[in-house]
Amino acid sequence: MAKEPTLATIAVYSLKGGVGKTTFAINLAWASASISKRRTLLWDLDPQAASSWLLSTDMESRDAAQAIFSKDVDVRKLIQPSTVAGLDLIAADTSLRSLDHLFREMDKKKRLAKLIESLGRDYDRIILDCPPGLTETSEQVLRAADLIVIPVIPSPLSQRAMGEVARYLVQRGGNHAPILPVYSMVDRRRSLHRAALDSQPDWPAIPMASAIEQMTVRRKPLGAFAPASQPAQAFASLWTMVERQLQVD
């Protein structure tokens, strides 16, 4: 008898901005819903709301995303279908700009984890598109996630940021979710990028490609309009690795 899938939360997180987090979150969520046929929720926690803009079916700004955490709004009331079949969305909005302040005031370190747990009957996979930085929000994310996917541009600064996250997790002590670093925006024509890939040959890599730029024009995940493209195939392979990691854990 096949084992029933249990809820797993995958956080797409980085200390730095501009590393492709939204691209990762959207394409991993698409793979979860469309390839693995999981009941999938993409939760946009970044006040820039890029994932929400790309996938939302409801363009009305509600400024209620933060109210989920203060219990003023039930989490299910903000869940909407996305433009991808089988993928639901909790959209971000500008209210999230003060989310760190709210978390400090509440002093409830597992508020996000408890909200996610309450959705366990409805979903198999929850993908978190996280804001950059080591903040109160990232603390909540790191406590809630079962796996942390970290996009890393093949450059010294981005790799240093990855190391800072790893050190931070060690310093916190106790158990934490495993991290999965993934090279992002890889251009093998650049010697710096080739050297980085050679230094970490086991890390997955997502290439820089015009198809990824087309996502913002078409407002669709890669798999929806360019499934045979190199980056779409790379994300499909990455999702297979994510699922394998979740099964091990």
Automatic annotation (TrEMBL):
<dbReference type="InterPro" id="IPR025669">
    <property type="entry name" value="AAA_dom"/>
</dbReference>
<feature type="domain" description="AAA">
    <location>
        <begin position="9"/>
        <end position="163"/>
    </location>
</feature>
<protein>
    <submittedName>
        <fullName>ParA family protein</fullName>
    </submittedName>
</protein>
<dbReference type="InterPro" id="IPR027417">
    <property type="entry name" value="P-loop_NTPase"/>
</dbReference>
<dbReference type="InterPro" id="IPR050678">
    <property type="entry name" value="DNA_Partitioning_ATPase"/>
</dbReference>
<dbReference type="Pfam" id="PF13614">
    <property type="entry name" value="AAA_31"/>
</dbReference>
